Amino acid sequence: MSVAPADATSRQGGAGQKINRGSWSWALFEWARNPWVLLGDIYVFAPYVASVVIGDPVRGQAIIAGWHTISGMIIALSAPFIGAASDRMGRRKPLLALCIGTLALGIGLRWFALPNEAGLTLWAIGLCTVMSGIAFVYTEVLHNSLLTRAAPPSMLSRVSGMGLALGNAASVLLLLFVLITMALPGQVALPFIPEAPLFGLDPAAHEPNRAVTLLCAAWLVLFSIPLFLYTRDLTTTGERFGDAMRHGVGNVIRTIRKLRDYGNVALYLIARMLYADGKTAILLFSGVYASGVMGWGLLEMLCYGITLSIFAVFGGVLSGWLDHAVGLKRAVVIEIAATTACLVFMVSMSPTTMFFMPVTPDVPVWNSPFFATGPELAYLGFAIIIAISITAAYGSSRALMAHLAPAGMEGEVFGLYALSGSATAFLAPALVAYFTTAYHSLRAGFASIAILLLAGLILLLFVKPPPHVSRDETA
To answer: Chain-centre distance of CA 336, in angstroms?
Structure first.
């Protein structure tokens, strides 16, 4: 498949090349979609479901993990076929619109998640979770496969990184909005904090927690519109979705077989499968470790999440710069190595230790209501570096995949790329659970994630990099 620039400006390479409207619109989709991950899956809604709706955090975590296991299995079995079908149909936007609608519906319906099944039943909440989890990954496959249409080769890294930066920026914006207008009102007396939650939300009915579902659903739909207006789609082949899916099964099987002829792509997908699982586990378990080991409460965790999200924005920018400065493969190697090193440093921190050396607990090093001790500040500092390096690695990895993908197989290969990010989704939690149980230590469980990062990094060293795309290269 040839890469057609969105307009004449995209044929002008070099540092002065402008990002056109189609590229901006492609990147803006991550601004639309990504906030739900932080507000829904990590900091606000999922803890509400576990602790309030289900009423038992331990049982709630197990149930939510089961929901994600189901969606992960379906994704693993279907994502490559969605990519293959999109390659056969040509156009991505109709199917992408359907997936966005499904995702928005699955998010928005959870406004009715109430304790004691007063609203949605538990199985209905689970169905919405599974449905939106699958749709989220499908939108990722289809959106990623449009990257080569949104930007020329010399701009792929910049546009990919910009999308991640915008996604994190939107997450920070909405986290702050929810914190200031919904969570803190009535809890603290500050001039800029309202006396009561906005929109008449009733904290007794847990409406501030549930409101993030409607907020994120509306945000998704609104900011997806530019993608459909300004980012170029492929030309339709006229093949119907059902026929494309049926034929796509054979295409995926042939693609997997053809990976024997594209050994470099196969090796990269395996490496990425391992280190991506490790990165995801860090995002999920760093908060658990911080809360359990450092003893942080709700206020600290909210500030922790906002701080990391702010710095993660720089990761999206860094990925584009680093890709051009040292090359795509070297950029990913640097980013994964930095993540691994910081993980080791993070597990060396506790209220009584720094770098595994004993310190006097609860001794403030500056006057602050939180993050006041040396171990807390060091943990936060290394977590900030990890937030930057993980975000940069997402951007660089996606750009590397776009450059390694054989022409005409972008959608199919990005389906395998999505599969490589979900096929071993059980592995990191299993490692963490085993080491935590075996050693009765949150530290040991969190540290075990380094095994996946190192395994992926070692395999990545054997991947042959694509030709270096310099700032002066023309499309």
So the answer is: 16
Q: Cβ contacts of residue 449 below 8 Å, gap of 6+?
A: 278, 281, 282, 285, 343, 428, 431, 432
Compute CA distances 110 → 107, 117, 123, 206, 212, whole Å: 6, 12, 12, 12, 9
Average pLDDT, the chain: 80
Judge whether residue 216 has pLDDT over 90: yes
**C-alpha closest to that of 45 among 219, 201, 209:** 209
Which of the two residues, 323 and 271, has the higher pLDDT score? Answer: 271
Cα-based distances in Å from 222 to 1, 91, 93: 31, 21, 16
CA torsion, ordered 42, 44, 46, 47, to nearest 10 deg: 100
pLDDT one-digit tens code per residue, 29-77: 999 999 998 888 777 787 788 778 887 765 666 677 678 777 877 877 7
Structure tokens given for 466: 């694509």
Which H helix or E strand runs over 353? strand 353-354
Cα 416 from chain centre: 17
Here the tokens at position 20 are: 């056109």
Backbone angles phi, psi at 358, to 5 degrees: -65, 140
* 353-354/357-358 β-pairing: antiparallel
Residue pointed to by tokens 């279907």? 78
Please state which of the ranges 119-128, 274-283, 333-342 shows the lowest mean pLDDT.
274-283
Of 162, 172, 160, residue with least CA distance to 311:
172
Tens digit of each residue's pLDDT (9 = 90 or more) over 411-459:
667 767 766 666 666 677 677 777 776 777 778 878 888 999 999 999 9
For the entire predicted model, the pTM comes to 0.72
Query: Per CATH, which fold does 262-475 belong to?
Result: Growth Hormone; Chain: A; (1.20.1250)
From the number of C-beta atoms within 10 Å of its C-beta (0-12, 13-18, 19+), residue 200 rates as exposed
